[in-house]
Design brief:
Blueprint (H helix, E strand, L loop, with lengths): L4 H11 L10 H13 L4 H12 L6 E3 L9 E3 H10 L7 H7 L37 H9 L4 H9 L1
Length: about 160
């Protein structure tokens, strides 16, 4: 297991889209988990690190959750107390962004699942000429679902 933080940060930065890892971004945290897995970290260690990244310290300054509050920024412990005292109150949008209750950017919207058109899975597509004798997509999926992982090797060898 590689625990050199510089190696991990360099690899994480290399794999994210803009080269600047953002621990608040769900997509970037998924990339970090993949990096940690590649570096030999087990699931418990990866989970602990990711929890620590998303945790807010009590003395961290965040936007005031009270939209009518005088102070623009308050300590997280005060904000948490205010939310506990006012459970039905609507918190400010800035506070939601600060604590990750709202998406910080629109780039994460890309990760939402979309319906896949499977009507052509049983036909060979002429645009993919890298493996002309390979199975159709439907045959490949059926083979993978049956537990035959050799299908991937066969395709790669043919391509």
């Amino acid at each position: 297991m590689n625990t050199n933080i510089n190696d991990i940060l360099v690899e994480w930065a290399y794999r994210v889209k803009d080269g600047k890892p953002n621990p608040k971004s769900i997509g970037d945290r998924i990339v970090l988990e993949s990096v940690l897995k590649d570096f030999g970290w087990n699931i418990i260690q990866r989970d602990e690190l990711l929890k620590n990244l998303t945790e807010i310290a009590p003395t961290d300054m965040v936007s005031n959750p009270n939209p009518k509050g005088r102070a623009k920024k308050v300590q997280y412990q005060y904000a948490k107390q205010w939310m506990d005292d006012n459970p039905d109150a609507e918190t400010s949008d800035d506070f939601k962004k600060d604590v990750g209750q709202e998406k910080a950017d629109d780039s994460e919207a890309e990760t939402q699942s979309q319906e896949v058109d499977r009507s052509k899975f049983d036909k060979k597509q002429k645009i993919y000429k890298d493996a002309p004798n390979a199975r159709t997509q439907a045959e490949g999926l059926e083979s993978l679902n049956a537990g035959n992982l050799d299908y991937v090797n066969e395709y790669q060898n043919e391509a």
